[in-house]
From TrEMBL:
Gene3D superfamilies in the cross-refs: 3.40.50.360
Classification lineage: Bacteria, Pseudomonadati, Pseudomonadota, Betaproteobacteria, Burkholderiales
UniProt organism field: Massilia consociata
EC number(s) from the headed UniProt entry: 1.-.-.-
SUPFAM superfamilies reported for this sequence: Flavoproteins (SSF52218)
Record protein name field: NADPH-dependent FMN reductase
Amino acid sequence: TTRHIAVIVGSLRKDSFTRKVAQSMIELAPTDLQMEIVEIRDLPLYNQDDETDTPPAAFTAFRDRIGQADGILFCTPEYNRSVPGALKNAIDVGSRPYGNAAYADKPCAIVSVSPGALGGFGANHHLRQMLPFLNMSCMPAPEAYVGNVAAKYDGERLVDESTRAFFQTFIDSFAGWVERHAK
Ligand code: FNR
């Protein structure tokens, strides 16, 4: 069965390493896992006053995309030992209206990415902390802390073979996780 995965990239940067990692995951995914990046750059900052009968069109479009997905892959850089504000905003937008969160009941997984040695551990775990509140089942293992990422890419090309092998294991495991939680 084909499963549709919404990939959320926490960086808005044109040459984002996190986006490259997301792209690698998309390329390595098994064929029955259809993965597509859902952009977060045009979401207005969440304001509860906007939660009327006619919320901003960008909110509705984003919630629809998330709601239709069978699972979510979060790929995030680390900003100040946490998630970037743009990603937090996308989580907040998708979490409302209360009781009807687009994210609810979806299986998910987290990949944190950094040019530094710690692989975005802080961002990874701050994100992990939000997920029970959204009633999302986050794949516990394997964990993905992609450190020293600059050395692993030559332009868009993933050149580190052990990283490629790990990404393959990770995305195959995620496919299994999504299948286990499929409705
Ligand atoms: C960073 N960076 C960073 N890196 C890290 O490992 N831990 C951190 O806490 C931070 N904090 C941080 C804050 C802010 C505001 C910026 C702009 C950057 C560096 C960051 O990992 C680096 O810029 C990455 O290249 C960002 O990811 P993308 O855009 O390449 O995906």
